[in-house]
């Protein structure tokens, strides 16, 4: 198992660990529930060093990325970030990623931990015949995220305590990045995250991670900052309606099925994996023959979680006395913020309208659940 540069600090803080995509990462510290509430009300500090970091540079870098991903990277301005996807030739989702444009011909691509090799291979293929370099820097890069309503104040205090100007982070917008110096080392500070809260992700040299972690923990102490693990990260992202690769996003689903057709740029000139299949799907959707199944939110008046893999049922009615399976739960939790069970599920398009009454098979018993819009919880961002 791979370990982050912060592994010993996590152990000192009492973390329990879990295996994730070949990495041994902190699952929780005191409790996942306390960490979840801290991020919603104050702030949490996450070690995300298992995520991939790939630099793509050179005169042909932009062309290479447009040949690889479904989005149009040419529309990305310097200092901004873009959410996109890597699809297979059938239009199925292999990974969702963020691309940061650091300069005219320099980009940082962040694939999910389990898909770094797949993403690098795809970018290498996209760069074939071009003057572009694809460099996997995952092993040399640490990633620390501070998330929550107090995140900006904590980061400003950390920068000032380190003798650095906090001006770059005061006005940085959502899905944008600025260069900073922390712990005496250059870092990329991005206003991105996976919790639904305001926050920042710091891309650092591997060897700088420990010092920056300590700096942030000290600066965040008065604001109630706590270390947070993967368990809280998952419950936070689910409340925020953010899909997870391998759960909502798989090779069996296309972007249009999960409400993310907007990220597909069929107007760009470059061919990319899955383009023909996605064009067919877009035409069918425009003709009123949208995809099925589709991703929906489910809300249930119970404390029992609606777990991944549970069958979603259409209850019997006077017109149709039979109960029928109409979908599958892809992620589900008891929502600490909302106080009841929530889930995301792929269901037949015919039963996907908000307000539709369905049920979920919870170990042989039907639990009533209503289709609701995503996200379950929405926060204001800059």
Q: Keywords, please?
A:
382 residues, GcvT, Alpha-Beta Plaits, globular, alpha+beta, six-stranded mixed sheet, Aminomethyltransferase, EC 2.1.2.10, Gyrase A, domain 2, 22% helix, Elongation Factor Tu (Ef-tu), domain 3, GcvT/YgfZ_C
Describe this structure in words.
The glycine cleavage system catalyzes the degradation of glycine. With about 375 residues, the chain is α+β, with helices and mostly antiparallel strands. The protein folds into 3 domains: about 1-50 and about 140-240, 2-Layer Sandwich (Gyrase A, domain 2); about 55-130 and about 255-290, Alpha-Beta Plaits; about 290-380, Beta Barrel (Elongation Factor Tu (Ef-tu), domain 3), CATH 2.40.30.110. It is about 20% helix and about 30% strand. The chain has helices spanning about 5-10, 30-40, 60-70, 115-125, 150-160, 165-170, 210-220, 230-240, 275-285; strands at about 1-5, 15-20, 25-30, 45, 55, 80-85, 95-105, 105-110, 135, 140-145, 175-180, 185-190, 200-205, 225, 295-300, 310-315, 325-335, 340-345, 355-360, 365-370. The longest helix has 12 residues, at about 210-220. It is globular, with a radius of gyration of 21 Å.
Structural class by helix and strand composition = alpha+beta
**Overall CATH class of the largest domain:** Alpha Beta
**Mind describing the biggest β-sheet?**
6 strands, mixed
Flag low-confidence runs. Answer: none
Count of helical stretches: 9
Based on the structure, what is the oligomeric state of the protein chains? single chain
Question: What's the count of strands?
Answer: 20
What is the H-and-E element order? EHEEHEEHEEEHEEHHEEEHEHHEEEEEE
User: Roughly what fraction of the amino acids lie in strands?
Assistant: 25-35%
What is the rounded Rg? 21 Å
CATH topology of the largest domain: Gyrase A, domain 2
Q: How many discrete structural domains?
A: 3
Mean pLDDT comes to: 96
According to CATH, the homologous superfamily of the largest domain is: Probable tRNA modification gtpase trme, domain 1
Spatial sequence of strands, sheet with the most strands: 11-12-13-10-4-14
| Amino-to-carboxy terminus distance | 38 Å
Shape: globular
Helix fraction, binned, reads: 10-25%
CATH architect. name of the largest domain: 2-Layer Sandwich
Domain Aminomethyltransferase C-terminal: 295-376
Domain GCVT N-terminal: 6-268
Organism: Schaalia naturae
InterPro entries: GcvT, GcvT/YgfZ/DmdA, GcvT/YgfZ_C, GcvT_bac, GcvT_C, GCVT_N, TrmE/GcvT-like
